[in-house]
Amino acid sequence: MNTMEMNRRTFVVTGASAAGGLMLGFHIPTRADAAAIMDDPWMAGEGGQEVNAWLEIAPDNAVTIRVGQSEMGEGVFTALPMIVAEELQCDWSDVKAAYADTNRHVRNTVEPYMVAAGAAKETDNLYQRMATGGSGAVRRSRIFLAQAGASARERLKQAAATAWGVARADVAAENGILSAGGNSATFGEFAAAAAEIDLDTEPAIKTPEQYTLLGQSLPRLDTPLKVNGSATYGIDVRVPDMVYAAVEVSPVPGGRLVSYDFDAVKDRSGIIGAYRLGEGGIGVLPYNLEELANRVTGIQSGVAVIADSYFRALTALQLMPKEWDAGEHGNVSDESIINGALDVLANPDDPTFNPAHSVGDVRSTIAASDNTIEATYITPYLEHACMEPLNCTAHVTADRADVWVGTQNPPRALAVAAEEAELPPEQVHLHTTFLGTGFGRRLRQDEVRQATAIAKALGRPVKVVWTREETTRQGKFRPYATYHFSASMSGDGKPEAYWNRVVSHSIFNHQLPQYLNNGLDRSALEGLDQRLPYRFDNQQTDYAIRDSHLPVHWWRSVGASQNAFAVEGFIDEMAHAAGADPLEFRLSLLPEDSEFRNPLLVAAREAGWTSDLGRGEGMGIAVAEAFGTIVAQVALVTVSRRGQLRVESVDAAIDCGHIIHPRLVQDQVESQVVFGLTAALYGEIHIKNGAVVEDNFDQYLMLRINEMPQVRTHWALSGGEKWGGIGEPAVPPVAPAITNAVFAATGKRIRRLPLRNHDLTA
Predict the structure, then answer these.
(1) Exposed/middle/buried for 206, CB within 10 Å: 0-12, 13-18, 19+?
(2) Residue 45: pLDDT above 90?
(3) CB 544 within 8 A of CB 352
(4) Do 462 and 237 touch, CB atoms closer than 8 A?
């Protein structure tokens, strides 16, 4: 193996893209190319010409398309370039992808042609949307990406038309070639001229029936890099003169570090120093229990040990004596949190309840009925359990900060680094890497804040790596939720009234209180209020917030993930009470024009829906909507006489309106079934003495490969104007489809997750 000496500038230069970001192997310019563009990273180097902020075209016709979203396995480094390429009419084999530059994004507003086309507002930042979440990569970026490709295409055609003395309408653009009559040229030949052209009118983008590239399952651009190991994740980053930091913060959120004895470890080999974090230590925005919003954004009280290797830093940290003060939450447990919520739930007149939705007179109808059913459902706190532990590398000087991190929100990460470095955002350069999954956890930037604060104090590059234990214990958890359902049925089994009371931990309450509406957290009510697809003459949903000291945040599919389990479970209970088939009962509650009908029918048909199965076998059905996409699922399970559960298959019918890349959608559905099944079977965070009990995968269990069911994805697309997201909506139906199937197989109703806590023996 050859050893190459590299200083920090060489690393930055050779790792920089034409967009100013880390290229991650998609397109790595030569050192000469990179050196020429470092001071003005969005101007073209020797390798290509920028036609607009989204793409550059090289003389050899290679097209580099810049991606504003973060690639964490969902396929945005293929799907989003496809949208641009569809309009550009380039040759897909010439396409490369690169991360858009976050520094450029925050320094510049959107290009005027986007405003002229109606695809942006003048106040938008350059790349408009760089936060990845809410299943929005395609559905919220499609229009402006398509506009970027269409505008570049028409500029290329105009440049050729001017040179050839013909009308632009007479110039064809196809597979990277411009042609008119006997004239022909590559895009690369006219890229420089096209960059200078302003169109009088911006072109309209294509409609789905005009697509020629979109809708195909093309090979992913990032697959070769991930197969050969050249893909760069945050944890892979190495910077010359870099040292390592191992960190530990209060095991009880809101607690504090009383003391630590660095003298006990300072003489160990490779140890450089230690810093107190947060209260009384480094960090411009420490975690402050009185300022509850800082539970997520600030630096929690703790300590970092710095060494010349991570092993040495971590070993010293673990050996170093530390004393913690748990504070006022030192006696809290998960059961005390749930029991407090159940106390509120048991009293329908509790003043903390706020009406979320009401039709008719629920209370009187239920009170007058002699045929009522009731049930209470409970879901626990859950961790995101990202594959890659949290990490961040930072270097802060007097006039510049560089941060290397896999983040779901690069602009927010840059802002956090700027705040901690006490520098203007324009002087902070964020180098986005691949993410070893995110699921919402990598939106919070607490690792960025820590790394930047330590790097500033240390005066040299530092890489902060959280252990798996720290990553798990310091999660920003999915909230718990508790539900009480009441319903009355007529003599012929038809529902008369439906009442749902919900008590949960609110994500918005302390982090984003401006988004609360009359005490309602809409993210906690997804699919419960007026968005409940089923219709009842008398219907009511009430909601109350009861928070704990744990920090919470969006988890893959957010509120729909737990709400669908409760709602679809109780709908199944109503069907059973009515003596009705679960599918037919759902259809009877849906309006004839409901978008939920077709996915249910497709899933049932493809799964071979039946209630006539042998002993220990059962099918369950569930449907839910998240981020504009409806997913219906049918699960087939078997349960042995010893109570051993196996999920045999899951059939999922998807209505997201339109599809960019079918294979990516199938991949996402399979991924979400794994995610949802893991949570349904095993997911649970316990709290003891205020601290999280689970700290690694021996306690916070993951689905094993031998437990993987067969997953079949089916299209139930409604088309039209609908463009739903696909990164999350297949998660919510998983748990209820499985638990409803368990009931069909065993007669045992599961109202509290996870399933592993239940005895399923015959």
Answers:
(1) middle
(2) no
(3) yes
(4) no
Residue-wise pLDDT for 352-362, tens only, equals 999 999 999 99
Comparing CA positions, the residue from 493, 476, 482, 456 lying closest to residue 369 is: 493
Strand order, beta sheet including 617-626: 617-626, 629-639, 645-655, 710-715
> Domains of the chain by range and CATH?
8-224 (3.30.365.10), 234-328+390-465 (3.30.365.10), 335-382+477-757 (3.30.365.10)
Inter-CA distances, 643 with 333, 649, 707, 761, 762, Å: 29, 18, 15, 4, 7
Q: Are strands 391-396 and 462-465 parallel, antiparallel or unpaired?
A: antiparallel
678: left (phi over 0), alpha (psi -120 to 50) or beta: alpha
pTM over 0.90: yes
Q: How far apart are CA 392 and CA 372, in angstroms?
A: 55
CA angle in degrees (0–180, nearest 5) for 254-471-69: 110
Q: Are the beta carbons of 320 and 265 closer than 8 angstroms?
A: yes
Longest dimension (CA), the chain: 85
In what side-by-side order are the strands of the sheet with 49-52? Answer: 49-52, 55-57, 63-67, 95-99
What's the pLDDT score for residue 18?
A: 35
Percent helix, strand, coil in the chain, to 5, is: 35, 25, 45
Torsions phi, psi of 629, nearest 5?
Answer: -120, 135
**pLDDT score recorded for residue 288:** 59
449-486 pLDDT tens trace: 999 999 999 999 999 999 999 999 999 999 999 999 99
What average pLDDT does the structure give for the chain?
Answer: 92
CA-angle at 273, arms to 272 and 276, nearest 5°? 155
Helix/strand/coil for 248 = strand
CA-to-CA distance for 313 and 307, rounded, in angstroms?
5
Helix (H) or strand (E) holding 589: helix 582-589
Pairing of strands 617-626, 538-545: unpaired
Give ∠ CA 729-694-735 in degrees, rounded to 5: 25
Count Cβ atoms within 10 A of the Cβ of residue 558 and give its class: 0-12 exposed, 13-18 middle, 19 or more buried. Answer: buried
Report pLDDT digits (tens) over 95-148.
Answer: 999 999 999 999 999 999 999 999 999 999 999 999 999 999 999 999 999 999
The answer to whether 383 and 474 are in contact (CB under 8 A) is no
Confidence of residue 10 (pLDDT cuts 50, 70, 90): very low
User: How far is the C-alpha of 231 from the C-alpha of 223, rounded, in Å?
Assistant: 9
Residue 96: C-alpha distances to residues 40, 63, 83, 275 (Å): 21, 6, 13, 43
Encoded tokens for 158: 């105009």
Residue burial 461-484, b: 16+ Cβ < 10 Å; e: rest: bbbbbbbebbbbbbbbbbbbbbbb
Residue 410: alpha-carbon gap to chain centroid? 13
Determine the straight-line distance between the first and last CA of the chain, rounded to whole angstroms. 61
Are 323 and 302 a contacting pair, CB within 8 Å? no
Give the pair of three-digit tokens for residue 654: 């998807």
Please give the C-alpha separations between residue 365 and each of 359, 516, 588, in angstroms, as whole numbers. 12, 30, 20
pLDDT tens column, 279-331: 889 988 776 545 544 445 678 999 999 999 999 999 999 999 999 999 999 99
What dihedral angle (degrees, nearest 10) is formed by the CA atoms of 16, 18, 20, 23?
-50
Phi then psi dihedrals of residue 274, to 5 deg: -145, 150
